[in-house]
Here is the input.
Amino acid sequence: MSKHFLSVSIILLSIAIIFLAFQLGKSNNLTLELKDLIHTVEVRENELLTAIEVAAYLSMDVEQFNKLIKNQNFERASYTSFDTYKFIPCIQLNGERYFTKKQVVKL
Here is the structure.
């Protein structure tokens, strides 16, 4: 009886070790996927910049930057079509202007 008990214990222990190794391997992959997801979210958070952030990025005063945008909007209104990169593109949400970092870098 003790011989069977020992062999059954060894088999159960080896199954438990294999199961644990499998679970640890899965958790490592999950951790890597979570890190990639967190990195992606961090990168995407900074894709839209406010006027204050763009002015700081361009080393300008916020008032100067707002005047630049106002002058560009006034000039743009007189055109029916224009070159894409002639003006700084922006979107306006809830009264706040947002600029894409990709477009600002091209300036």
